[in-house]
Amino acid sequence: MGGPRISTPNVTSARVSDLEASGLEDLAWVLARAFRDNPLNLAVIGGSKERRVRSNRQGMRTTLAGALGRAMVLAAGSGSEPLAGGLVALPPLQWPLPPPPLGLQLRTLIGQGLRVARRWGQIFHELGSLHPIRPHWYLAVVGVEPDVQGRGVGSELLHHFTRQVDADAQPAYLETDRFENVALYEHFGFDVESEIRVRGVPVWRMWRDARSYPEQL
To answer: Cα separations (Å) of 178 from 3, 6, 111, 145?
Structure first.
């Protein structure tokens, strides 16, 4: 959910590849910082930036660990940054991911705190109740390191994602809590399906119709 704060896909020098297990911890930190100031993050966690990053890291570690081997997990570097952003997308009929091992669940609960974990659980339940039933790719996470946002890293990740979606001739779906991301996703073929409020925060649900050919964007 959410993603890079990029309004226009400009010149990119991003290098995108499949995430290897050895890079999980580093990408978890990048994504933790990427979502630090998102409206839902502020509503659920609050507190200082450092607190939100620490809490996010626990959730991202769990998400990435569950996604590796089951989903598309991409990592992107930019310029001198070896790791600047990442993407997690679930193939058709793979949502939701199976629960993580109990030990990892407990580690996440301790790291985030019961209040925060419960709030995230309520949000995922609410969004899940609106999740499309028909088969589709689910773009679960797109995040870019704050210091390199606006340099095309998110756009390059989305190029890789949409190429795969088009090769499969499947639709795609996402949610974002950042209004400035809506135009970026529209550029890649998504349309707003509805705007809802979750814990008082606007969230845009977006759908991309299936295409039978790769489109050059």
So the answer is: 8, 10, 25, 16
